[in-house]
Amino acid sequence: MGVGSVEERIEQGVQLRDRGDIQASIELFNMLIEEEPRNASIHYQCAWSHDALGKEREAIPYYEKAITLGLNELDLQGAYLGLGSTYRTLGEYEIAKQVLLNGMERFPDHNALKLFYSMTLHNSKEHGEAMEILLNLLAETSADKTIQSYRKAIEFYAGQLDKVWEQ
């Protein structure tokens, strides 16, 4: 057993990762997983550290376990995004799409999930749908006055980019 509560030790691992000592954070999280294998938060943080170290494939089982065990809403959003993004970077686009869709279904107002889903659609050669999502996100979230002055037009054309208007 280490020193401090589990929550304090998780925070130590996060601080190690934030300071760039990612391998040490992974080692700490793996030790904590041995002590508390059903703690979803530890699995999530361990996945995040693997991703940060560029070990995406190794991050996957930690993300999946964290989601299965159950996370608080904020961490669950991050886990769906991290897992979907990881599958996307590994070229596993169909799995990435399903993970991100599951996250969007659970958290329909989470714009970053929509953004990563649109990137995955682009990778899957579904450019029209990807652009539609991005344009709608831009119209909904931009504070830029020049974009907001054209918001209705952007939203109107978002799903009709390939349509040619005849006179």
From TrEMBL:
Signal sequence, start to end: none
Assigned keywords, A-Z: TPR repeat
Gene3D superfamilies recorded: Tetratricopeptide repeat domain
TPR repeat positions: 77-110
PROSITE patterns: TPR
UniProt KW Cell inner membrane keyword: no
Pfam families: TPR_5 (PF12688)
Top-level taxonomic group: Bacteria
InterPro entries reported in the protein's UniProt record: TPR-like_helical_dom_sf, TPR_5, TPR_rpt
Domain Tetratrico peptide repeat group, chain residue ranges per copy: 42-161
UniProt protein name: Tetratrico peptide repeat group 5 domain-containing protein
Organism in which the protein naturally occurs: Rossellomorea aquimaris
